[in-house]
């Protein structure tokens, strides 16, 4: 299974903010959309990603104010990305080795979607269900 197949099921909706937004504004969007990370996109260029983990470690634990801090102050700029043709195994390896939970999907340097660890896990479970069903039908014939 490829990233593109996950996106065709999940959808390609992407939420983003600007690096000049406050962290509070970014968190508000994340809360409204029920997402754990948000992309920072400016002029169609992916500049970074802000996750709940970034907020917890760089704002809460340092006693900063999310209403005074700007996204660019705490966003991750070394963003790990994938392409639509990448497979699930590659995505799992990236998420594990790079310790990330969200992978923006780029095509021709434009963000066309984002997948999360839960999207990958759901896809793998579906593949395993199909394999088990196939094996069961093979055994019972």
Q: In words, what does this structure look like?
A:
The protein has helices at residues 3-10, 23-33, 52-60, 71-74, 88-98, 117-140; strands spanning 16-17, 37-42, 45-51, 102-107, 110-116. It is elongated and about 65 Å long. β2 (37-42) and β3 form a beta hairpin. The model has no long low-confidence stretch (mean pLDDT 94). The strands form 2 sheets. It has a 3-stranded mixed β-sheet with strand order 1-2-3. Strands 4-5 form a two-stranded antiparallel sheet. The protein is α+β, with helices and mostly antiparallel strands and 141 residues long. The chain has a single domain, classed as CBS-domain, CATH 3.10.580. It contains 6 helices and 5 strands. It is 48% helix and 20% strand.
């Amino acid at each position: 299974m490829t990233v593109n197949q996950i996106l065709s099921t999940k959808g390609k909706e992407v939420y983003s903010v600007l690096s000049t937004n406050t962290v509070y504004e970014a968190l508000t969007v994340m809360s409204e959309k029920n997402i754990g990370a948000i992309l920072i996109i400016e002029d169609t260029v992916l500049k970074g990603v802000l996750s709940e983990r970034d907020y917890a470690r760089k704002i809460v634990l340092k006693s900063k104010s999310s209403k005074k801090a700007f996204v660019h102050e705490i966003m991750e700029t070394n963003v790990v990305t994938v392409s639509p043709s990448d497979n699930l195994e590659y995505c799992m390896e990236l998420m594990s080795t790079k310790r990330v939970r969200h992978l923006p999907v780029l095509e021709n340097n434009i963000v066309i979607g984002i997948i999360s660890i839960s999207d990958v896990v759901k896809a793998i479970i579906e593949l395993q269900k199909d394999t088990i069903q196939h094996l069961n039908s093979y055994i019972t014939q």
